[in-house]
């Protein structure tokens, strides 16, 4: 049954509230095609505004919880066991170019473990959500990772390091190892949605380096609650610490990891 708990309802309501402003700004941006500098400033203002809405909504619903946001960093709460991990706009470059593929990401960490997650694409109105031990859903539909077992049938997603970020040479080696063995590699520009798409069985796997906790926290839970496996790129558990991730189903995970290690 896909009835949301009170906690999930709080998170979903906050995401939808922040989405209203982002939708409005996205519509204007698509019309404006503002000057280069102007567009970036506009998006950064949209980002900050969305995070403010999330911060206020979540703080009101759960006073005292800590808050780790992309814009404001870590705000310690009086309740040391709970922390919200929030990205108000994952896929900023897409947003800036009026590409309708971006998301609001909210995760709740309890004593260091992610226990609830929401990833919301306001344009498609797809709300991906999960609570530890209770499964993964999009809107009211239960999700499972794809059942493909062979790399030659698999479509994987990744992220390409951009200007001033990450290790291009390493990425190209990894891409070389993977792309010649799979049905396709996609790069959509929003890690939160890449992970949600793995949970939904649309992608068979996703790997990337140099990510932040707010890119990853919600998606980790979505994929594992959809029956998938998520590790860092060494095959370990410290995804949020290392900022590297491989998410896939149980069969493909070791196969992809082995190919990525060949690129090391």
Write a brief structural summary.
This protein has 264 residues and is α+β, with helices and mostly antiparallel strands. 41% of the residues lie in helices and 25% in strands.
Structure description:
By secondary structure, the protein is α+β, with helices and mostly antiparallel strands. The protein has two domains: 6-142, 2-Layer Sandwich (Fructose-1,6-Bisphosphatase, Chain A, domain 1); 151-262, D-Maltodextrin-Binding Protein, domain 2. It is 41% helix and 25% strand. It is built from eight helices and 13 strands. The protein has helices at residues 6-32, 36-61, 92-96, 168-179, 191-199, 213-225, 239-242, 252-262, and strands at residues 65-69, 73-75, 79-90, 103-110, 113-121, 126-131, 136-138, 141-142, 155-158, 184-186, 205-208, 229-231, 245-248. The strands form two sheets. It has an eight-stranded mixed β-sheet with strand order 2-1-3-4-5-6-7-8, sandwiched between helices. Strands 10-9-11-13-12 form a five-stranded mixed β-sheet, sandwiched between helices. Helix 5 (191-199) runs parallel beside helix 6. The longest helix has 27 residues, at 6-32. It starts with 5 loop residues before the first helix and ends with a helix. The model has no long low-confidence stretch (mean pLDDT 94). This is Inositol-1-monophosphatase. InterPro entries: IMPase (IPR033942), Inositol_monoP_metal-BS (IPR020583), Inositol_monophosphatase-like (IPR000760), Inositol_monophosphatase_CS (IPR020550), Inositol_monophosphatase_SuhB (IPR022337). Keywords: Hydrolase, Magnesium, Metal-binding.
């Amino acid at each position: 049954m896909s009835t949301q708990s009170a906690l999930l309802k709080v998170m979903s309501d906050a995401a939808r509230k922040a989405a209203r402003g982002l939708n409005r700004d996205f519509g204007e941006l698509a019309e404006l095609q503002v000057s280069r500098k102007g567009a970036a400033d506009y998006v950064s203002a949209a980002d900050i505004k969305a995070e403010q809405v999330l911060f206020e909504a979540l703080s009101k619903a759960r006073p005292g919880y800590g808050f780790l946001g992309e814009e404001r960093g870590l705000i310690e709460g009086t309740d040391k066991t709970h922390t919200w991990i929030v990205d108000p706009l994952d896929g900023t470059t897409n947003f800036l170019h009026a590409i309708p593929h971006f998301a609001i990401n909210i995760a709740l960490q309890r004593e260091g473990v992610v226990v609830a997650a929401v990833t919301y694409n306001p344009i498609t109105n797809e709300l991906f959500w999960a609570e530890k031990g209770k499964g993964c859903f999009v809107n009211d539909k239960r999700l499972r990772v794809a059942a493909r077992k062979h790399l030659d049938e698999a479509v994987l997603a990744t992220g390409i390091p951009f200007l001033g970020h990450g290790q291009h040479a390493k990425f190209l080696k990894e891409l070389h190892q993977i792309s010649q063995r799979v049905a396709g590699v996609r790069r959509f520009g929003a890690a939160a949605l890449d992970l949600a798409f793995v949970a939904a069985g649309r992608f068979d796997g996703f790997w990337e380096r140099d990510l932040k906790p707010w890119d990853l926290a919600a998606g980790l839970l979505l994929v594992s609650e959809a029956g998938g496996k998520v590790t860092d790129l060494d095959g370990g558990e410290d995804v949020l610490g290392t900022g590297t991730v491989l998410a896939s189903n149980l069969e493909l995970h070791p196969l992809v990891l082995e190919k990525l290690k060949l690129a090391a």
